[in-house]
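Sequence of Large ribosomal subunit protein mL43 (Daphnia galeata).
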Amino acid sequence: MSNSHLFLQSGFIRTPLQNGLGRYIPQLQRITLKFCKNQGGSRGVRDFIESDLMDFAKNNPGTVVYLKPRRHRSPCMVAEYLNGEREYLSCHEFSRDEVHKWLSYMCTRSGIPVMRFRKYQHTDYPSIQGVWNPFTHQAPEINLAQYPNDILSKPANQGPTATEQLIEIFKKTQIKDPIKPEH
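Predicted 3D structure, token representation.
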């Protein structure tokens, strides 16, 4: 098991500005694609720019796309979010599809740094009764029971089944109105 989570920041799930409760605001403010015009490691970024960049810009009108050619440097993406966070990603020897996937990943992120969650739930107004779980109101006998258990398997305080009710109705109709054979 990896210990990399020990070095992550810890915190709770946060939603930026209650995003999505009335309207959705894309959190990616701008993205800068830095690439070299003739270096081999920038080929995937150049292919993406030539073929898919216009479609990306049309589909994401709230995101500003900057292209920054630079000589003899490795390609990278810099994403800037509305909360002021910046994310840097090296795109050295990425294919066109990889550039597209990482770009769509950055578009769907909130910009909040990746963190280790302290709990799976969080509220600003905690309950004094504790956290509910499915076993809160279960009978304590279940903890020590050996299965299969005849007592726990029986339906509690239930009447006859639907099949038994139909058989009773059929028997009552047979007694009241017996079928007379025709001669």
